[in-house]
Amino acid sequence: MGATFVVVLREGFEAALLLGIVYAYLAQIGHAESRRYVTLGGALAVLASVVMGIAVSVLSGPLADVGPDLIALAVIFGAVVLLTWHGWWMGRHARELRGELQRRVDAAHASQQLWMVGLIAFTGVFREGAETVLFLWGLMTQLQDVSGWTALAGGAAGLVTAAVLGWLVFQGGRRLSVQRFFGVTSLFILLLAAGLFSAGIGRLQGIGVLPGGDPLWDTSWLLDDHGGVGGFLAGLIGYRARPSALEVAGYVVYLAAASLLFFPGLYGRGTHRNGDVIEPAQTSRA
Amino acid sequence: MKRLLTSSVLLVAALAVLASAPRVQAQDKTTEVPLTAANQAFQPAEVKVKAGQPFVLVVTNNDPKKSIEVENKDLRIEKVVPAGKTVKIRVRGLKPGSYVFVDDFNQSAKFKVVAE
Question: Which residues in chain A have their CB less than 8 angstroms from residue B90's CB?
């Protein structure tokens, strides 16, 4: 029971965190009604995971060998493209989201962009979804004996715990100040996308499409990326204890290039830091 | 939005080409390393490969019900092998040394790849 609890919790943790953050984001910007995008994105991801789980069990040969890799890569890089585009859009419209008007974000503009929250939900759930489906499916087929039931109970407890953690993040996120939350959100999306981009490069190296792959450094003595805090950072911002040179390069290059798009004022105004960019450039606050 | 869709489609197509091209070339010379998984263990528990030479792990899961997930985080490999199935896992050329793979669904099942 303990083992299945840990497996399901680990697989569900990242998805629950992302969902908690996204729900809190919507509550913060006064678009709680847009939760349907998140729910839809999450539900579609569960559906896609089940379909993928079935496909992987039924198919064989080359389709089963490379199919899952291709789909995972397409989802990862597709999400990076869409998140980058979203960040660019938000950066361009940052002026509309500032000061007193923050609570009343230009509704039309903002709601045009809220499909992004559905995308984050989809990516978060789908990344580990198919594996979880196959794992739980294996548990379900063993319900003839007592150990099968306790294993299933462990799996269910893992899912519930992941959901509770997501809910706690949601509660915590709602209490952050709106102003700070906007800055943190853009920064978070930037880091999330950089982590995804770097993870995509890592997977391409893993299957030998891109060269290299040996670790550039090893910080696992300090913070392992397998679980706990390291696993948390791995899922959210792409932390790796033993990153390859290309992964590091991809992460840094993406961060540099995308922060220009996300925070257009960042390099022009010298002294301002990330969190302040949502402030109007011309106010007399300083 | 349309341009975005087009570029996403192009990206996916490019990835598909990238992923399939080296595969086709390498098909006849890539070494296949067979392994079976059953009763929460891998057979053999240790395999040897040539250092620097990409290879393919051919993993057969003989358990009638449980799926396994062959994983080595450092090599960025995470691949599910459903119950009763065989899946080929491409692995890049490795530096000399030993690499432990675990079943992520049951961490006590492991095997070691020794590159020399």
Answer: 207-208
Cα–Cα distance measured from residue A80 to residue A199, given in angstroms and rounded to the nearest whole number: 11
Instruction: Flag whether B14 is in a domain.
Output: no
pLDDT at A133: 84
- Lookup: tokens for B105: 């669904």
User: Is 0.90 topped by the overall pTM?
Assistant: no
- Residue B21 placed within a domain: no
Judged by a CB distance cut-off of 8 A, whether residue A205 touches chain B is yes
Q: From A89, which residue of chain B is nearest by alpha-carbon distance?
A: B1
Distance separating alpha carbons of residues A166 and A120, to the nearest angstrom: 14
Q: What's the pLDDT at A98? A: 53
Q: What residue segments make up the domains of chain A, in order of their start?
A: 2-276
Kindly report the number of other CB atoms within 10 A of residue A44's CB atom. Answer: 15
- Smallest CA–CA distance from A202 into chain B, residue: B76
Of B4, B15, B20, the CB nearest to A73: B15
The distance of Cα B46 from the centroid of its chain, to the nearest Å, equals 15
Residue B3 inside a domain? The answer is no
B100 occurs within a structural domain = yes
Closest CA to A76 of A185, A238, A243, A224: A238
- ipTM for this model: 0.70
Look at chain B and report how many structural domains it folds into: 1
Calpha distance A234→A97 (Å, rounded): 30
Which of A65, A74, A203 lies closest to B88 in CB terms? A65
CATH number at residue B58: 2.60.40.420
**What count of CB pairs under 8 Å joins A to B?**
96
A66 CB near a chain B CB, below 8 Å?
Answer: yes
The CA distances from residue A96 to A24, A188, A194, in Å, are: 20, 20, 25
Structural domain range at position B108: 31-115
